[in-house]
Write a structure and sequence with these properties.
Blueprint lengths: L9 E6 L4 H11 L5 E7 L4 H11 L3 E4 L2 H13 L7 E4 H10 L5 E4 L7 H9 L3 E4 L3 H17 L2 E4 L2 H9 L9 E8 L9 H4 L4 H4 L9 H9 L1 H14 L6 E5 L5 E7 L4 E5 L5 H9 L13 H4 L13 H12 L3 H17 L5 H15 L8 H23 L1
Parallel strand pairs: 1-2, 1-5, 2-3, 3-4, 5-6, 6-7, 8-9
Antiparallel strand pairs: 8-10, 10-11
Length: about 400
Amino acid sequence: MPSMNAADPQWVTVLGATGSIGCSTLEVIALHPKRYRVFALTGHRQVDLLARQCVRFAPRQVVVADAAAAAQLRDLLAALGASSEIQVGYGREALERAVADPQVDSVMAAIVGAAGLEPTLAAARSGKRILLANKEALVMAGEVFLAACRSGAADVLPIDSEHNAVFQCLPQGRAGPGVRRIVLTASGGPFRDMALAQMASVTPEQACAHPNWSMGRKISVDSATMMNKGLELIEAHYLFGVPAAALEVLVHPQSIVHSLVEYDDGSMLAQLGNPDMRTPIAHALAYPERIASGVEPLSLACVGSLDFEEPDMVRFPCLRLAREALHAGAGAPCVLNAANEVAVAAFLANQIGFGGIAAVSAQVLDRCGTREAGQSVEAVLALDREARALAHQVAGELAR
């Protein structure tokens, strides 16, 4: 990977710059203007926000979804008086150039969903320091992604608050002899205490109203179903090299303890902090150093108490499905991820109810979860397409 000479500024590409993780990343970078420079920003269709980010951070490149968005962005940049040297591109090839350029040191991989897989793989092949917020790279294609990291000598630092916490509690960031188990904490989302009978009628607005974290709509729904935590179990399996039996989930409503590692001698190490994604972002950007993140210090006296409980698998069937996919291995995690993305989109569009997310995911996992994932990105994407097509069919039947 590129050298990290502290005397030279690090050049960072932010994939998914207009999402919540991307915006938080730019906030941390803005606190350290001599230490970091933005090489490229990418966004999908929030062109207005992306244009304002370009004016503030003056990236070398900016990438959007298609030619129409690129034309709109060029007009906005001209109107805002942005540097004429910013190169505007669009599409897959432009995304891969934005991460593979030799000048890039670090890549924040924060594109939500399967769309982030290919540019994250390009960063791995190019030997970058990957700040991994896109869990689908591991959930969909864990073996393929890790092989690409090994061949490119890429360095992977987790950004999810739970995985970043585990990383901080493990020597060299990987489980080895003496580690008994890894425990990921979960807030329980907005429906932790809701009567089960009421959950069938919850709305997208209710599901997106997370009590502790500010996130995008898709991830907020995943938190409400606890599918997010299930996918994080799969991600932890690949990130830290631990078997499914050594991975557990605890519901922790305060979101102060971000995860724990238990050792054979009875010690349990935990990472604590206010629920703010700028903390893991700052940790990964500067690792192994520590820098200011802009997050308020945690006051344990003000928090008062910390509560923990076992997750309710009846209330959160998506967590059970993710565990089943993890134990099944092969293509099951890829299939589950695809089905969930389709089901969440249908729920957000008011086409199916909240309970339909688990129902669609379960049917798709049951019908094609035994497929092999394959050892290439092409095979993974083919399985992803097959699972999505089936999920659209099942969701359509459920809607009728």
